[in-house]
Amino acid sequence: MSDPIINVELFDANFTTALCPELILVAGFFALMIIPNLGKATFRIPGTQIRVPYFLGGERYPIFANPRLPGWIATITLILAFASVLMSFDGGLKRYMIVSGSKELLLINGFSRLFEMIFFGAIALAAIASMNRMQSFDSSDKSTNALYNNRRQADFYILLLTTAMGMAIVALAQDLFVLFLGLELASFSSYVLVAFHKESKEGTEGGMKYFIVGSVASGIGLYGLSMLYLWAGTLQLGELAVAFDAAMAPQGYPALPLIALGFILVGFGFKVSAAPFHFAAPDAYAGASSPVAGILATASKAMGIVGLTRMLLIVASPESNDDSAIWLVALGILSVVTMTWGNIAALGSDNPKRMLAYSSVAHAGYMLAGLTAIGAWNWDPELAGHGGDAAIMVMTAILFHLVVLVCFKLGAFLVLSILESEGEVSKMSNLRGLSKREPLLAVSMFIFMISLAGVPPMSGFMSKLLMIMGIVKVAIGNMGDAIFNGDLLSIGDAHWVWWLALIMVLNSAISMFYYLRVIVTMYFHEPEGDRQGPLPSGWQVRTAIFACVIASVFFGINADGLIELCEMAANSLNYSWASQ
Amino acid sequence: MQDYISVPLVGFPIIASLIIMATVSNLSEEMREKMVNPIRWAILLFSLGLLGWTTAMFYNFFVDLNGFEGIAFNNYEFHKRYIWVESLGIYWSVGLDALSFPMVWLTTLLLPITIIATWDEKNGAFYHPLILLMGGALIGVFVALDLFMFYVFWELTLIPMFFLILKWGGEDRKYAAQKFFIYTFTASVVMLLGLVTLYFLQNPLDPLAWSGTMTGRTFDIPEIVHYATIHNSGGNWFLGASMQKIIFAMLMLGFLVKLPAVPFHTWLPDAHVQAPTGGSMLLAGVMLKMGAYGMFRLPLALFPHALEYFQLVLMAIGMVSLVWGSIVCLGQTNLKKMVAYSSVSHMGVICIGIATMQPMGWAAALFMMFAHGIISPHLFAVCGAFKHHYHSMEIGGMRGMAKHSPWLATSMMFAWMASLGLPLLAGFVAELMVLIALWHFLVAEGWSVLWMVGPALVLAVTAAYYLWSMQRTIFEGGDETQPPASMDGQPIPDIANHEKLAMFVLAMLTILFGVMPWIALDMMNDWSVQIFEGLIMPILGNFNGGV
Amino acid sequence: MDWHHDPAAHTIVIVAFGAALFHLFNHAMAKGMLFMASGSVIHEVHHAHHHLHHDDHGDDDEFDAQSMKNMGGLASKMPITATAMLVGSASIMGLPLIGGFWSKEGIIANAWRVALEDPRFFFPAACVLLGAGMTGFYMTRMWVKTFAGKPSNEVAAHVGPTNSWIKTPLFILTFVTLSSVLLAGMGFTHWAPDSEYSFLSDKGLVDGIMYELGHAFANHDAFFFILTYVAIALSAILGPFMAMSLFGGKLEEGEDCKPWFKPVIALNNWVYNKYNWDNTGIATSGLAIALQNRLYIDKYYDLAMVKIVAGFSNKAAETDTKIIDGAVKQIEDKSQKISTIVRSLTTGSARDYILWVAIGTLLIFFFIWGVA
How many domains does chain A have? Predict the structure, then answer.
């Protein structure tokens, strides 16, 4: 924390350095709009026979007409963006604040960099996988057909890039307006992406529902944000936090920010698909193509968590308070309901994608439990000790979980994506005999499943362990010292969030059941009648899956590096936590 | 000191088997068939090498040490520690003492025997590597001296066993495999929460605690045990009374389900009946012992007060397991299910041995773990031969086996006798010692020794169900033997040579450890006395008669 | 009588224990020999049956080679075996001077000595005496049914001599049994239980034998004098007499046997011819049938085992499956049902979803407000 935050005005000296990944995205965005349209278009200077080529349109050059091209452009853009985020860590991360006058707009620090990595990584993987997933007929077909394909591809990948852009903005935002802007950019792109699969009825229907419910939730969230503005007269997160601290009077909070907080919880609750705001999610996941569903389950969820973290922890967390956060009980109940609801619903679900959707609801519950625990970090000045350590631990766990979730949740969706390009994947039985048809894919799916369930030595276990450790650390606090000094304490003296950890481990045991069912379906049953032999080829998606497998295992066995990274990110989230 | 454990005993089996399976899965069907023989020979030789390695460790001929006897409590031979996840205080920490070594040796012993006994299991190119993987994971549990590592291997053992049951099991294998996995997983996640809570209750301000981690605490077992030993004293409970009880209960849940003790035992019959022979042999031989091992390793060493507090509960659980297991055995018609329930009953004996809080009871429980580890694979090998050759496991479905399958009948008789506790065989030593320890316990507690009638009667019931099942399979039928209906009039084969070999080795070992139990018992006894004198007596005094 | 502390009782105890130990020895020799000999008989009978019926298959099960009904008159066919049986039986019965006589006599005498001191012991003492008589009866019955009389069927007529592997131990055991008198003379009854006693320091072997003989047959105490002869009468006269009168007979015409069997068989034949009586009434009485069925103990035992223990264990197994495992299955089943209910809330209609959002919003307010 030696370097101070560098303030950067728009187009300042450091502007490109600070926003390099986002600028790459913008460049890719333009490239996607222009490159597939390059052709032999010319225009005749009126009155002459001179034809001046202007390239946009006309008969396209074969290389630009290649339906795979948009995919490659998007993938390369995202990978470049990802790489530029990685490079920014080189030689010590520099922190920037993009300001406009006195207003802070975007903050670039470890926390937001990590989220950029999550978003870009996840969407890059989805983009690679989509190359095999989207129908892309050979360009030797009729040219209109090729054009159609090509256009459609370009649309799809443009939407992917805008999703990434919106999410990145949410991760960076320090201002409610910017936050909402990013949120809506990402949301709207994802609504379209869900409905993009317009050949199938489910796709359109799911997209529509996702849009309607999402708009309502966004509207409620926006209402909450505007109430905050009404109350505090500012949209700046930092100023709002000061206002909350100041409002922390003995007589309690005024009503307005509380109502606002509740509304905001609903708005972001939809994004992380917390029960009971999750209803549209299973429909959307089932309707969307698998890579898109993977994005919804990982990147989109991460975006929701960023929003919640910003609003609940930074704005409304009681840093100077000796008491727990005001939203503690509400969020605790929300997390219990979410994880239990998700797991119970997934138990009987026969559609693999809906099952994964419910499982992602359950995972949202685990992360909400972590957030709840952070809210409890000052629960008792004597027993809690310096809660900041514990809060960092929990935040590290949440970040770690979000990172590895990209590996195994998205990976699972990618495996389904290969199956999908063969035909329907609406029943568990479609997975039958995968171990015979494609042993390596089955092994990958197996690793993803036990990772999701949290079985060692997979990364899912590590994230679950970290989460439990964080929650327990918050709940236990300094009780070790107190016991050492002769106090007789019981588990009842720990903060009640300890029970969240218990509910969480029991829930993960329940979840074992449906994850195992996938494994059993793949390994036990014979392939379905008309679905024999190896699956359609596609090295791109297989590469993506392979990367996911490696990461899922690697971060389970050798988690130290990632934990340190996440710890760094968590440290940079809130200055007062790092006071040790 | 060199690291004699991590690579040869844990790392190599796991990695080698994973590589073999990955390679094989990319081969064509014919190539796979061709590769079966080299693979199983390689794995057999390798597992024999493991056995040689651990035996050499026992004799310590390549290090200048005095074996596993006389190691002070909480000290370990071959102890090595490497940083694994530094930020959480997690170490890759391995070591052996008289508690873990017999289990490790047993695992390396059962690996080649299992491979030999199930030499021609179908789909061998995957089967034998899985057995090796299972072995590596099991050894990992026993050598782990870090709670995290312990838990990782604890759960890792589920995966190969799950696949062994799912892919090579019987009719209802799908249900059994899932039940086995979920049941034990549920218990062990509760245990995990207990471990994590314990982890955070270590006092970070204590000079013993760890710096350089995110949390200031460690998962290292020797450190935690050391820390607990300091804080446990006469009136002083480590972590305080109520906290100690809660964490003790959470850990014990995981161990008792794994053991398994009544009423958490119902996963076992299902898993055993459906599992293939090799899976059953390792499951009964080593995997059940993980529960007992865990009880010794953690609750006993960390929470002696709570153990004393829950002594009678544990005793009751042991008694109920013993009695219920054997009574249910008598009502079984499936041979393998009967043997599975007999395991429940024998695990009850271990539970009683631990609950006596007598060094003799502990040594007896340790020896029971070891003896049952030799005898039960024999039982399951016999059951497997039944299934393999007669396609039936119904008791009474065949008669007069002594006539048409003399080798199998002999093996069965031997194994059955060993399991019912025939003197001069390994099981007898353990049972007798447990009964003596129980007597000590009753006398010390001032209870009526009539309580001994229970276990004594159960031994009679044990004899009854074993002899009865033998009567209905081996002997009855006279000259008109009744071949099992499932044979459809096919000629009845006796067991194959490789099965004979495996069973013979097991029988010889049963005799060896029945006649000369001190080979293993000495160090177990030593360990028990060490822990009793070093840990229990300073804390609780010579509270119930002791030694 | 204080067995532990009374010095007077001490002698009795030592002698009684000595007699018992001596009887263990005698019994081991004699009974071992009897089993071995009967084994050889059974073996030969089975062999003969096999030899006779080797061409017709399958009736192996009908023939019981162990049944005395299928024997008779074997004394001429298997002399060594018959001799061993004879000596063994005599030893077990306690025929004077042979093997078990010495120890049995000691036991009876000591039992009665105790009974005189303490009336509670009268019953066991009487039982000992009664048992001696019954032993005389059944051992004689066994011998005469097997070796004397006429072969009861074709098989018994074709039994050959036993082989020399069995003969050798039989001979040794016979010798030991017969020479039991030497052990008695050495004072076995004293030195076996009392390690202080040195058997030859007291008197020489001949003196010892003479002492024992005198002690047995010419006891100075009138009671024990009579007792000895009563015991001899019961076990060596009355018992064998009864047996011979029922089961006796002589060998087949033309069959010859060793000279030492001749008086036994002749006596047997004489008793049989002279005193034979019809025991059908007793043989068909309820008591006899009950005895034949071992007083139905086995039957009730079986019944208890099968009905109670097996029944209980079957119930236990059922409980285990239905209740303990059933609970686990119930959890599984119920959670699936709950899952169906929970999933049915996902109706597919966006209206309902928005309703749920509204409910959720209200709940969140409720909880935030509740805390604040």
Answer: 1
